[in-house]
């Protein structure tokens, strides 16, 4: 990753984290990170780390080869010695809402809200998914253009964790 690539990824992550948390203060137990695209083995490595640290992880995957763009949002949620890994989630913003939620694909029921120290599962999927994903993307673009620094209680980092 180059410094320019890192800066683009960091700007995306900062905006998405701000959109998910709103004014909620971060606490231990929830980790946001970003890096290159992962295969199943790479995601399993993240899952092992999440279980060991007992922290929920939101991992943003980016493609570096044809520019720098978000390709996937993965959720890694350890609970009671089990671990849910939901890949290819959507960032969704309901009409009039202040905070976005994460909506997994069809094989995982419900959606997830970011609380200060964990991801909370909620029943049901939004009915206007495509419109909400578009609203979230527009809001992320607005936040990125505002170039505001990320709040001090939030730490979101770019990691270079790639499968070999």
Describe the structure.
With 164 residues, the chain is an alpha/beta fold. The chain has a five-stranded mixed β-sheet with strand order 4-3-2-1-9, sandwiched between helices.
What percentage of residues falls in helices of 4 or more residues? 25-40%
Strand order of the largest sheet: 4-3-2-1-9
Helix-and-strand structural type = alpha/beta
Distance between the termini: 15 Å
What profile does the largest beta sheet have? 5 strands, mixed
Summarize model confidence as the mean pLDDT: 85
| Helix-strand string | HEHEEEEEEEHE
List the helices and strands and how they pair.
Elements: H1 3-21, E1 30-36, H2 40-53, E2 56-63, E3 69-79, E4 82-86, E5 90-92, E6 101-103, E7 111-115, E8 118-122, H3 129-146, E9 156-158
Parallel strand pairs: 1-2, 1-9
Antiparallel strand pairs: 2-3, 3-4, 5-6, 7-8
Highlighted features:
3 helices, alpha/beta, two-stranded antiparallel sheet, globular, 5-stranded mixed β-sheet
Quick synopsis:
The protein has 164 residues and is an alpha/beta fold. Helix content is 31%, strand content 30%. It has helices spanning 3-21, 40-53, 129-146; strands at residues 30-36, 56-63, 69-79, 82-86, 90-92, 101-103, 111-115, 118-122, 156-158.
């Amino acid at each position: 990753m180059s410094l320019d690539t890192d800066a683009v990824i960091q700007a995306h992550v900062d905006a998405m984290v701000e959109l998910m948390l709103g004014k909620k203060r971060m606490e231990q137990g929830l980790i946001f990170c970003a890096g290159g695209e992962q295969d199943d083995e790479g995601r399993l490595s993240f899952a092992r780390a999440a279980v060991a640290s007992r922290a929920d992880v939101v991992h943003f995957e980016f493609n570096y080869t044809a520019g720098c763009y978000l390709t996937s949002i993965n959720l890694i949620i350890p609970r009671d010695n089990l671990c849910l890994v939901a890949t290819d989630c959507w960032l969704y913003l309901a009409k009039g809402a202040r905070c976005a939620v994460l909506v997994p694909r069809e094989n995982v029921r419900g959606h997830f809200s970011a609380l200060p120290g964990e991801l909370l599962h909620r029943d049901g999927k939004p009915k206007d998914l495509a419109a909400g994903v578009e609203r979230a993307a527009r809001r992320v673009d607005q936040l990125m253009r505002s170039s505001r620094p990320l709040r001090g209680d939030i730490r979101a980092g770019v990691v270079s964790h790639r499968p070999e």
